[in-house]
Amino acid sequence: MDKKKFRVVVDAMGGDFAPMNEIQGVISVFESKPQDLDLEIILIGNENKIRNSLEQFNKDKQRNLNYSIIHAEEVITMDDEPTIALKKKKNSSLYKGLELHSQGYADAFVSAGNTGAVLSTATILSGRINGVSRPTIGSFFPTKNRYPTLVLDVGANIDTKARYLYEFAVMGSIYATQMLGLEHPKVGLLNIGEEETKGNDVLLEAYQLLKSSNLNFLGNVEGRDILNGSADVIICDGFTGNVILKFAESVLDLFKTKLKSFANKNIFNTILLALLKPALKKVFAEFDYQKYGGVPILGINGVVIIGHGKSSPLAIQNMIFKAIEQIKKDINKKIEIALTNSILSTNN
Amino acid sequence: MDKKKFRVVVDAMGGDFAPMNEIQGVISVFESKPQDLDLEIILIGNENKIRNSLEQFNKDKQRNLNYSIIHAEEVITMDDEPTIALKKKKNSSLYKGLELHSQGYADAFVSAGNTGAVLSTATILSGRINGVSRPTIGSFFPTKNRYPTLVLDVGANIDTKARYLYEFAVMGSIYATQMLGLEHPKVGLLNIGEEETKGNDVLLEAYQLLKSSNLNFLGNVEGRDILNGSADVIICDGFTGNVILKFAESVLDLFKTKLKSFANKNIFNTILLALLKPALKKVFAEFDYQKYGGVPILGINGVVIIGHGKSSPLAIQNMIFKAIEQIKKDINKKIEIALTNSILSTNN
User: Fold this and answer.
1) A151-163 tens-digit pLDDT
2) Which of A140, A146, A268, B102 lies 20 to 30 Å (CA to CA) from residue A112?
């Protein structure tokens, strides 16, 4: 067997704590990677800042740190419009990194930066997988079970056709099978009731597409099913998915505020909550799922992983390992086969 | 000043714990109502069950219990289709009660039953307020502030036009002003970004309608703004609102499961959580807002309050008092004036 070399571009200027968290993440990848994994990381961004961070965090001079640095003058901020990289900031780490990837100089691109900008730039530069109408972004939600629920789309596509929803289901199922190890992931269609007759025309049509597919389709699911784990993959339009994702991210804040005002009432409460803090932190951490993982953009001709702006070094590390796993498992090829060979895809 | 007599129909067969919670709620209304409030409650439902519950919960024979009972043979279940009362179950407590109300024999109708059935039946029997295109249902979400956020629509209208969204905003603002005492309630349009250019055509048009209205319009808000209290009234289509409402209702379950599994780890954890239980209960209770209040259907020619199926006796009591307050404040007249006199309503 040929030993493949993996090249991953890391957008060193992406997240809110860039390049510190990115550099720490990269260092820990080299500390924890299997010995036989032949990996090169291409750090892209402001060279001075990257070198400073490397000096700061790589004090004991890891010998096996196999990286190169490519300087990029500009930075895409979180407030920039999604199309800015394509229109104006072609010297940004985001654009240059995705360009390298699309030209075949790297196998994957990882960023904790502006999701919309990564999505639109990656879609234009790398193009779509054969059979895919619209790339999609998913997000993981914690559940009562061992596995999280993958909800997609969470913002890439506001207006969706039934066919898009079907494609999201196919891509999500393949991802869940390959990356979470679920054999026949259960797919639910997000709706406002379980009956087959619920929802608008797009949902009614999507229901029939999913029903006649070879996916493990559960039928319609409701808002409450996202967290209860009854489905492994939940499909919705990007408007609803985005609103829910942002709502979910804000739940913790409210809890923390309420608990804090309880703690401030008297010393007994303060002590009680201090004792419980480690447990609550753990419960809360699970809720902040996206901070610890990163999610792929599915449907583009490439391996692009995006993370939350607040991605920790551990999250960056996980994103890099996920990118490698996605390449190894050839998920894009599986998506192409599923969407070009199915009866559905030729009929619709 | 004339002293008005209030007649409120209570659907005694509505909630999951009917008629027990309904009867207890009614009894506590009479126990806690101001002396000068002239109130008659019309209990509608299975007469035997109602009498049994009254006997059970009114042991000390409240003298001032001013009620009458109207027997209704049929019951609408939570699983019944929204149109069932209109099509088949005209002898149900829900249909007969709403009919009494629409014919003027009662000032208000209160039910913890099937929301969809109450909505469609009330809309047909009572009709819409002049100027209202579509009745709407709102729901309260807890916030970090003193006041909850009123989100509407949460399920009455899946597909909305810009004009409907505008009307929801007007109705929600009037409700928040009158019932929560907010002077210029801040109105937000739920979207997936704050910029004026975000969203589909309906949202773009609604944004302009709201911007040129005399409402206190904040602009677009995102999923995270529902709980952070930045807006008092948040407007969205009924699909998104319903998914969020059900998602929000499920958040507690997940927290409880996670905390329980933490408590089960060792005796120290068990004790910690037992000590913290009262506090958590209070925080959680606030999250379960709709269980404690009840929400109005806004836009129909009548005063109809619906509650969560799990409404407690206290919730039923609150719903009855809210109905009376809504009558007193003549909210429907204010909605009619706002929606028939505005420049917008004549132009659109």
Assistant:
1) 999 999 998 999 9
2) A146
Map residue A257 onto helix, strand or coil: helix
SS3 label, residue A268: helix
pTM, full prediction: 0.91
Find chain B residues with C-beta within 8 A of A273's C-beta. 276
Query: Helices B162-180 and B201-211 meet at what angle, rounded to 10?
Result: 50
Correct CATH for A136-289 of 3.40.50.300, 3.30.470.10, 3.40.718.10, 3.40.50.150: 3.40.718.10
Q: Could you tell me if B206 and B191 are in contact, meaning their C-beta atoms sit under 8 angstroms apart?
A: no
Note the pLDDT of residue A43: 97
Q: List A residues 131-190 in contact with B (Cβ-Cβ < 8 A).
A: 142-144, 155, 158-159, 190
Position A187 confidence tier, pLDDT thresholds 50, 70, 90 = very high
More confident call, A289 vs A268: A268
Residues B1-132+299-342, CATH architecture: 3-Layer(aba) Sandwich (3.40)
In this complex, which of B199, B254, B273 lies closest to A227 when CB atoms are compared?
Answer: B254
Numbered ranges of CATH 3.40.718.10 in chain A? 1-132+299-331, 136-289
Pull the structure tokens for residue A303.
């391996």
For residues B85 and B83, what is the distance between their CA atoms, to the nearest angstrom?
Answer: 6
- A 266-295 residues with CB below 8 A of B? 269, 272-273, 275-276, 279, 282-283, 286-287
Q: How far apart are CA A318 and CA A322, in angstroms?
A: 6
Residues 6+ apart with CB under 8 A from A62: A27, A30, A31
The CATH-assigned architecture of domain A1-132+299-331 is 3-Layer(aba) Sandwich (3.40)
CA–CA separation, B93 vs B73, rounded Å?
7
Enumerate the H helices of B33-161 as residue ranges. 47-57, 84-87, 93-102, 115-126
Mean pLDDT over residues B99-104, rounded? 97
Q: Which residues contact B8 (CB under 8 A, 6 or more apart)?
A: B39, B40, B41, B42, B106, B107, B108, B109, B110, B320, B323, B324
Chain A interface, best mutation among B194, B258, B284, by max A CB count within 10 A: B258
- In this model, does residue A258 exceed pLDDT 50? yes
Mean pLDDT of chain A: 90
Confidence of residue A347 (pLDDT cuts 50, 70, 90): very low
**Interface predicted TM-score (ipTM) of this complex, two decimals:** 0.89
**Cβ of B224 and A249 within 8 Å?**
yes
Mean pLDDT rounded to a whole number for chain B: 90
- Which residues in chain B touch residue A249, judged by CB atoms under 8 angstroms apart? 223-224
Q: Which superfamily does B136-288 belong to?
A: Isopropylmalate Dehydrogenase (3.40.718.10)
* Residues in chain B closer than 8 A to A192 (CB atoms): 155, 158, 238-239, 242-243, 246
| Residue A299 sits at the chain B interface (C-beta within 8 Å) | no
* Cβ count within 10 A of residue A61: 7
